[in-house]
Amino acid sequence: LDPVRFLGNASSGRQGVALARAARLRGAQVTVVAAHLSEPLPAGVDVVQVSSTADLAEAMTRLQPEADVLVMAVAAADFTPAETSAAKIKKDGSGTLDLQLTETIDVLGSLSARRSGPPRQVIVGFAAETAKDDDDLLALGLAKLARKGCDLLVLNNVSGGAVFGQPDNTITIIDPDRVVLTASGDKAAVAHRIWDAVVATRTQEDS
Ligand code: CTP
């Protein structure tokens, strides 16, 4: 917004860091595109720092051709300030501040639309939903998976602020046809289940 303020959200990046660590442990070459992480990254991963959804889009577009798998665990901002101020925004005595926000690019949707192959790149999205129950979560997830065009979607129910910043996570992974798996536990264990689902998807596509 100005030199001292930005718009952010409650995501810690912990699940993304756990995914990077698990992928390294499995011998993958890993590049993390990161903004405001509250966790240190594991040794041996490449890091690209970004600070906006536009930066994220640019970095991911550049990296996409080299990757076998893309995982979008990022809580990317859906809106960005229409204008940023070069000077700190001051109170003007009116009691309010009007901010105009514009929609950002859907990075995951555009990456899914642009992939080439064979072999087909596997793309994994995340979906943080405030769902009423499991059926509602699944319905929201299937609609989002279709909209984004990715292979797998990792669903989180974030009702009541659950998940963000917590050590544990409960996820449901879906593909366009079915629930692939559900998992619960610390974010390191959940990261390995996500890679299990990716490996299964790659194996299916190879056969
Ligand atoms: N995502 C993205 N670009 C954005 C917003 C989100 O690539 N501008 C990605 C996230 O990294 C995640 C997936 O899209 O993998 C779903 O994010 P989510 O915030 O759940 O969905 P939205 O696209 O914001 O859809 P909605 O507002 O309908 O929930």
What does this structure look like?
The protein is built from 5 helices and 9 strands; from the N terminus they run αββαβββαβαβββα. The chain is globular. The longest helix is centred in the last third of the chain and has 20 residues, at 187-206. Helix 1 (14-25) crosses helix 5 (187-206). The chain is 32% helix and 23% strand. With 207 residues, it is an alpha/beta fold. A hairpin with a 4-residue loop joins strand 8 and strand 9 (179-186). Residues 53, 72, 74, 76, 78, 104, 106-108, 125-128, 148 line the site of cytidine-5'-triphosphate.
- Share in β-strands: 15-25%
Shape: globular
- Count of DSSP strands: 9
Helix content: 25-40%
Strand order of the largest sheet: 3-6-7-8-9
Describe this structure in a few short sentences.
Helices cover 32% and strands 23% of the residues. The protein has 207 residues and is an alpha/beta fold.
Give the key terms:
207 residues, alpha/beta, globular, binds cytidine-5'-triphosphate
Question: What's the structural blueprint in terms of helices and strands?
Answer:
Elements: H1 14-25, E1 31-34, E2 46-49, H2 53-63, E3 69-72, E4 79-81, E5 101-103, H3 107-114, E6 122-129, H4 134-148, E7 152-157, E8 168-174, E9 179-186, H5 187-206
Parallel strand pairs: 1-2, 3-6, 6-7
Antiparallel strand pairs: 4-5, 7-8, 8-9
The structure holds cytidine-5'-triphosphate.
